[in-house]
Design goal:
CATH superfamily of the domain at 123-374 in chain B: Type I PLP-dependent aspartate aminotransferase-like (Major domain)
Strand content of chain A: 15-25%
Strand order of the largest sheet of chain B: 1-7-6-5-4-2-3
CATH architecture of the largest domain in chain A: 3-Layer(aba) Sandwich
Structural class of chain B: alpha/beta
CATH class of the domain at 123-374 in chain B: Alpha Beta
Structural class of chain A: alpha/beta
CATH superfamily of the largest domain in chain A: Probable inorganic polyphosphate/atp-NAD kinase, domain 1
Oligomer: heterodimer
CATH class of the largest domain in chain A: Alpha Beta
Distance between the termini of chain A: 30 Å
Helix content of chain B: 25-40%
Largest sheet of chain A: 7 strands, mixed
Largest interface: A-B, 37 and 29 residues
Order of helices and strands of chain A: EHHEHEHEHEHEHEHEHEEHEEHEHEHEE
Number of helices of chain A: 13
Number of strands of chain B: 11
Number of strands of chain A: 16
Largest sheet of chain B: 7 strands, mixed
Helix content of chain A: 25-40%
Distance between the termini of chain B: 62 Å
Number of domains of chain A: 2
CATH topology of the domain at 123-374 in chain B: Aspartate Aminotransferase, domain 2
Shape of chain B: globular
Strand content of chain B: 5-15%
Strand order of the largest sheet of chain A: 3-2-1-4-5-7-6
Radius of gyration of chain A: 20 Å
Number of helices of chain B: 16
């Protein structure tokens, strides 16, 4: 892993289908069937764009790196679109890629003596990369999946560029992070939890990462009941109410006697769940003509409020959710583990991000609020 | 690739960092007493007794007033001799890490300073402990003079115009402040509208707790990147609904907020009151005053800053300071000097209800008075200067230990305490602050993390006060440094710590679930031995009074 200052070799792995399931409300993008369904529901791949954002930031900062990429959609295409001419191109599949391809490409990159493997994807991609690398390999994730519970991701593509710049300058650090993914068995039983798949060396200190998702701990009944009570006070009886993903929101719904989707977005109207696990377009059509409210909670350990795990709340919907129409809830323990904020937002439209940013009242219990800054990632 | 290796503290490094030539090493080979002492009820032995009272003719007692108070049944106390009682409690006391035993700087925010022993003589005198609450003022002029002068000293220290000494603890004083705020807004016809109290997450948690108890909605500000409560966030929530801001300065991070008047002004602008929680006042005596920062109310924990002992659930003492405008709302009777000596002043009709029956905790008020008198004005300022100096010495030395940091305000001095973070050490070794704390008990040191929820990750809060010598601070630092080294080279020792304490770690559920508690022998027998006792009846309110729904009793007493 040693290299002299200023000659860093970065291996790039792009999962071209990462994040497809997000706007489509599929809570993940694993499996070809899901990917086809996501594209049918109108999703566009975004991992290549995210890689582009990182590469453009590296150019802007004039960070000297050598780039090793797999041919085609797994790296080369994204690099060229961002104006980079890769130093080395290795063989890779030219069309639809699978988990095994990601693993094989990660292993192949090691032969080019890369200092770090930067990959764009989500938890599934992190697992696949981990399967192809050695115990000393250092990785860095660009967040491009639906939900990223592993602690291997930089907060944004630009943040990833910053971490690389530090490392090339010689002031970088590495830390050990967990690769986790949704525990599907538990989820079917209604528990939102993560399963640990392994640990990897990550470029950057744990403070620079977006943080591994911290498994939802059962909050005391009175805390969740108090949050549910307060949310109830703020509901507009005429509105369509969107229930965001996560255990906190699900617990709020449950205390109203409603069963909601743990990882999806549901629509509640007049005290009833009228539509579950909706895609962005479904949400738009179901709520059309009604006032809109949404109940959302940040992802524990990461602090992402919008743009991770709830990409169904697209630009059009979020424009209808500014001000008090967006109800933010969080348990005090989760808020504490996030250092009291900020909560991060990552939406496609920078102007919308700006409109949503700033200090905001967050419901943390009965007659209890916190004031937390919403910031753009 | 530069991987920053944090090397285990090597022998040479330790040698370089501990140049002090002393006969005994700073790191003690401590072991707590471990007695496995039974409960005193389990020491019960038929026929044993402490004093053999001479028998007397019972008929002689028949006409005495005492006869009407005589109990008809035998008290269910253990039968045990005097010396057995003495040994029992001495052994229990040996199994604690009390303030007179250990370098008690590990309980940050608690201000564990020395409580001078001579003050016990004053506090224990007949004029103190034998005072009856209904006693005529003319028969307790000395006590009243002490209370009157103590009010004026605390007024001088805080800059406030009036002081109430009625509260039996710091939190009771804060509750009194909340009730004063409530009474003030009610008197102005705004009681219903002003239903929000703003506080900060690093302020004394009693602010949020008492505000909520009094029925307020609590809005908590979180720190900005510099560790100060977010001013922009404050301004985004102040409104005609704001009743008051309750804030500590320095907060529990030990960082003094130099822009505090801007916070005060923002709240005054919307008609709210500002209350200075002075639980962290040990670095401020004679240096900064609440009133001059624009606050309307403040309180002191006399058992922190003014040396009266911490009471652990027994009576402590709190003092409330107020501006002249709010003085009529203060609870309890205050002492005034009249033509014929000191008298109790009847509270104003605007005054909020008494916080406790009768007066404040007079023995503790005497201790605080004695402490202030023994130091004088210059001495009080010196207390704060030494407390701040000790804290910054500790900060400088502790930051030399690999793996610990002092989040926020990098490179700045702190006031009287610091909340540190072990997150780097935890990242590296997997050992967290709680395990380090358990290991510190093996070195005979108390150690406290933080209030919940943790905002600073893997926290530890240290407050050295003015009472400890440099050698004692160095002993604490040596124990911390050694523990951090152990986390790297033999983490399993910390995973199972403590090893040399009087007991091992306590089951958390046993501490937090009232259903498992038995805080009396009777409750223990009922819950764990199946004994049956008649339950004490619950108080039933008169027909007219509203009945609040309550959870079923856990009956742990």
């Amino acid at each position: 892993m040693m290299s002299t200052l200023g000659s860093w070799t970065v291996g790039l792995v792009v999962n071209p289908v990462a994040g497809l399931g997000g706007p489509a409300g599929l809570s993940g993008s694993d499996g070809e069937g899901i990917q086809a369904e996501a594209i049918r529901r109108g999703s566009l791949p975004r991992s290549a764009d995210r890689v582009g954002r990182m590469l453009r930031e590296l150019s802007r900062r004039e960070v000297p790196i050598r780039l090793v990429v797999p041919a085609g959609p797994m790296g080369e295409d994204a690099a060229r679109r961002a104006g980079w001419i890769p130093d080395i191109v290795i063989a890779a599949p030219a069309t639809a890629t699978t988990a095994a391809d990601t693993t094989a490409v990660a292993a192949a990159l090691l032969e080019s003596n890369v200092n770090v493997i930067v990959f764009a994807g989500g938890d599934g991609t992190a697992r696949d990369v981990m399967d192809g690398i050695g115990p000393d390999t250092v990785v860095l994730g660009i967040p491009a999946g639906v939900k990223m519970h592993s602690g291997v991701f930089a907060r944004s593509p630009e943040a990833a560029a910053g971490i690389l710049a530090d490392a090339v300058r010689g002031s970088g650090r590495t830390s050990v992070a967990e690769v986790v993914d949704i525990d599907e068995d538990a989820r079917r039983r209604g528990i939102l939890g993560s399963r640990l798949f392994g640990r990897v060396n990550v470029l950057g200190s744990s403070k620079q990462m977006q943080g591994g998702k911290i498994g939802s701990q059962a909050a005391p009944r009175e805390v969740l009941g108090g949050i549910a009570f307060e949310v109830g006070q703020r509901l507009d009886p005429k509105a369509m109410v969107l229930l965001g993903p996560g255990t906190t929101v699900a617990a709020v719904a449950l205390s109203w006697g409603l069963k909601s989707t743990l990882l999806g977005i549901d629509v509640v109207h007049d005290g009833k769940v009228i539509s579950t696990n909706c895609s962005a377009s479904e949400l738009r059509s179901v709520t059309s003509g009604y006032p809109l409210q949404a109940i959302v909670s940040p992802i524990g350990g990461q602090g992402f409020l919008l743009g991770r795990g709830n990409q169904q709340l697209d630009e059009t919907l979020l424009t209808r959710l500014t001000g008090e129409r967006l109800i933010v809830v969080c348990t005090p323990e989760k808020l504490g583990s996030l250092g009291g904020g900020p909560f991060w937002i990552d939406t496609p439209d920078p102007e919308l991000s700006l409109a949503l940013a700033g200090p905001r009242r967050v419901i943390i219990g009965r007659r209890q609020e916190a004031v937390i800054h919403l910031k753009n990632a | 690739m530069t991987t920053i290796q944090t090397e285990p503290t090597s022998a040479t490094k330790t040698a370089r960092e501990a140049p002090l030539q002393v006969e005994k090493p700073l790191l003690r080979r401590y072991h707590a007493a471990r007695w496995d002492e039974p409960l005193i009820f389990q020491l019960d032995a038929e026929g044993h007794r402490g004093i053999a009272v001479p028998s007397s003719d019972e008929s002689q007692l028949a006409d005495t007033p005492e006869n009407s108070f005589r109990r008809k049944d035998v008290p269910s106390l253990p039968q045990i001799g005097q010396s057995q009682v003495l040994r029992h409690y001495l052994r229990l006391s040996q199994e604690t890490l009390g303030a007179d035993l250990n370098v008690d700087i590990g309980q940050g925010t608690c201000t564990m300073k020395y409580s001078p022993k001579v003050n016990e003589r004053f506090a224990g005198s007949g004029q103190s402990v034998d005072t009856h609450p209904l006693q005529d003022a003319s028969t307790m002029q000395g006590t009243l003079q002490i209370l009157h002068e103590l009010e004026s000293y605390l007024g001088e220290v805080s800059g406030m115009d009036a002081v109430s000494l009625q509260a039996g603890s710091g939190s009771a004083a804060i509750y009194g402040n909340v009730k004063v705020v409530q009474a003030y807004h009610e008197a102005r016809g705004e009681g219903d509208v002003r239903d929000e109290i703003i506080t900060t997450i690093f302020s004394h948690p009693s602010n949020a707790a008492t505000a909520k108890t009094a029925g307020y909605k609590v809005i908590t500000l979180y720190p900005d990147e510099n560790g100060f409560p977010d001013l922009e966030a404050l301004k985004s929530v102040t409104s005609e609904r704001t009743a008051a801001l309750f804030i500590t300065n320095p907060e529990d991070t030990g960082i003094f907020n130099p822009r505090i008047t801007e916070y005060v002004d923002a709240v005054h602008e919307v008609g709210g009151l500002c209350v200075y929680d002075q639980a962290n006042a040990n670095g401020l005596l004679g240096i900064a005053r609440a009133r001059e920062a624009g606050f309307d109310l403040c309180h002191f924990n006399l058992h922190k800053t003014f040396s009266t002992p911490h009471a652990c659930g027994g009576p402590a003492a709190g003092a409330i300071g107020s501006s002249a405008q709010l003085a009529p709302f203060l609870p309890g009777r205050r002492v005034v000097k009249g033509a014929n000596g000191y008298v109790w002043q009847v509270p104003d009709e605007l005054a909020t209800a008494d916080i406790r029956p009768f007066h404040g905790v007079i023995p503790n008020l005497i201790r605080a008075y004695s402490w202030i008198r023994s130091l004088g004005a210059e001495g009080l300022r010196q207390v704060s200067e030494i407390a701040v100096l000790n804290n910054n010495y500790l900060l400088a030395e502790i930051l030399k230990i690999d793996g610990i940091s002092a989040p926020y305000a990098a490179g700045q001095h702190r006031v009287e305490q610091v909340r540190y973070s072990w997150s780097e050490l935890t990242d590296e070794t997997g050992i967290g602050s709680a395990q380090i704390g358990a290991r510190m008990a093996d070195y005979g040191m108390h150690y406290w993390t933080s209030h919940h929820p943790y905002i600073v990750p893997e926290p530890v809060t240290l407050e050295p006060t003015e009472s400890y010598s440099k050698r004692e601070l160095d002993e604490y630092i040596a124990a911390l440094r050694n523990t951090a080294m152990e986390a790297r080279v033999e983490p399993e020792v910390l995973q199972d710590a403590p090893h040399r304490s009087s007991i091992h770690t306590v089951d958390v559920d046993a501490m937090t679930d009232p259903d498992t508690w038995a805080t009396s022998w009777r409750a223990y027998r009922r819950k764990y031995q199946g004994a049956e006792f008649a339950l004490a009846p619950r108080w039933e309110p008169d027909g007219e009074l509203p009945v609040r729904p309550r959870p079923p009793k856990a009956h742990h007493r």
